[in-house]
Amino acid sequence: MPTMDERTPEPATGPAARPLLNRGLAGFGTTIFAEMSALAAETGAINLGQGFPDTDGPESVREAAVRAIRDGRGNQYPPGPGVPELRQAVADHQLRRYGLAFDPDTEVLVTTGATEAIAAALLALVEPGDEVIALEPYYDSYAACIAMAGGRRVPVTLRPRDGTYHLDLDELRAAVTDRTRLLLLNTPHNPTGTVLDHAELAAIAELAVDRDLLVVTDEVYEHLVFDGEHHPIAGFPGMRERTVTISSSGKTFSLTGWKVGWITAAAPLVTAVRTTKQFLTYVSGGPFQYAIAEALRLPDSYYDELRDSLRARRDLLTAGLAEAGFGVHRPAGTYFVTADIRPLGETDGFAFCRELPARRGVVAIPNAVFYDDPARGAPFVRFAFCKRPEVLHEALTRLRASR
Ligand code: PMP
Ligand code: GLN
């Protein structure tokens, strides 16, 4: 009997014969947010990288979750589409804020954060070979989910001009081919802070109708608009039946760990997305769903105060970064600022962000990760301002010291 070591090795046909990670996901390593938050934890640096607030959302909402757990609401699997209270609250929110009517039973689906909504929508609507147009720089999960669906990502790049980023509508039109299945929008836009205005959205809607495209629109920052106004593209002519709108409680209620998101769309689209969603998580966050149903009913003053408080912090961070020598792009929405490091004599945002915690005790995100061609985003870095003013002041003191 040969020992284990003497045996002739089997031909390499087993798991070792090819990379373990599905080749469609080759190159998708650890997300930049995890990498940079780990670096912040390791170095004790101020984390202006990953976008999460350093104060938790309203106490009444947190208490509502505790109450739901105690009362035994949502501790067992909630219904697949989400608890009726939350679906109704989402429908009421869309009607109250935007005048858009959705049937809570057939046109609303609760998801595990916007992240799952994005995944479920793309897996449902995209087939291998389909082209998906995404605004670049794009949120990292878009690329991964398009790849998981076997689609081809076609970036249309927002370009900096006069201190903000702009979409070139002609470039968008030119990117549409016979293989284009959908436009993946994000407004307010992470990481640039661009808010697409009414005229831009009207032009995009016209294009979608003309070329018979689906639209998946990520509107998680809908309540964080400081200049201008948020317009859901689902409200434009011809868009209701072709648009999947995604939002989430994470940003709106400063509860990013709860992972309660949702889509609103016409019933056939919701049915398609629900079909994939049920095999991803089936359901999640039962008690949190009840609490978010209450959160969505907070008075308008809640949303106004959140926006005003973040606007003040935007102004604080943009002014301070400019003083520290960065080129600053002023965000009209979201809680991120994109800064240009070239005025500091730097060109490589990756190297800059990897060294910044040790050099200055601050963490930022290199925008290069949000581009197909990282060179396009190389000199840009993103800072989050969803932190207490004293934390932003301290970060700015440290950054100013770097001059
Ligand atoms: N879309 C965008 C543009 C985001 O910035 C984020 C992140 N926070 C998400 C989706 C994910 O949202 P959630 O935490 O609800 O999954
Ligand atoms: N959306 C958050 C950001 O852009 C991060 C969420 C995540 O870590 N996936 O910073």
Helix/strand layout:
Elements: H1 32-43, E1 46-47, H2 59-70, H3 84-98, E2 108-112, H4 113-125, E3 131-136, H5 140-148, E4 152-157, E5 159-161, E6 164-166, H6 169-175, E7 180-186, H7 198-210, E8 214-218, E9 243-248, H8 249-252, E10 260-264, H9 267-280, H10 286-295, H11 300-323, E11 327-329, E12 336-340, H12 349-360, E13 362-363, E14 365-366, H13 374-377, E15 380-384, H14 389-400
Parallel strand pairs: 1-13, 3-4, 3-7, 7-8, 8-9
Antiparallel strand pairs: 2-10, 5-6, 9-10, 11-12, 12-15, 14-15
Bound molecules: 4'-deoxy-4'-aminopyridoxal-5'-phosphate and glutamine (GLN).
Glutamine (GLN) binds at residues 31, 33, 50-51, 190.
What does this entry look like structurally?
The structure is a single chain. Helices cover 40% and strands 16% of the residues. The model is unreliable at 1-8 (pLDDT under 50). The chain folds into two domains: 31-57 and 301-400, Aspartate Aminotransferase, domain 1; 59-297, Type I PLP-dependent aspartate aminotransferase-like (Major domain) (Aspartate Aminotransferase, domain 2, 3-Layer(aba) Sandwich), CATH 3.40.640. The protein has helices spanning 32-43, 59-70, 84-98, 113-125, 140-148, 169-175, 198-210, 249-252, 267-280, 286-295, 300-323, 349-360, 374-377, 389-400, and strands at residues 46-47, 108-112, 131-136, 152-157, 159-161, 164-166, 180-186, 214-218, 243-248, 260-264, 327-329, 336-340, 362-363, 365-366, 380-384. With 403 residues, the protein is of the alpha/beta class. Bound molecules: 4'-deoxy-4'-aminopyridoxal-5'-phosphate (PMP) and glutamine. Residues 31, 33, 50-51, 190 line the site of glutamine.
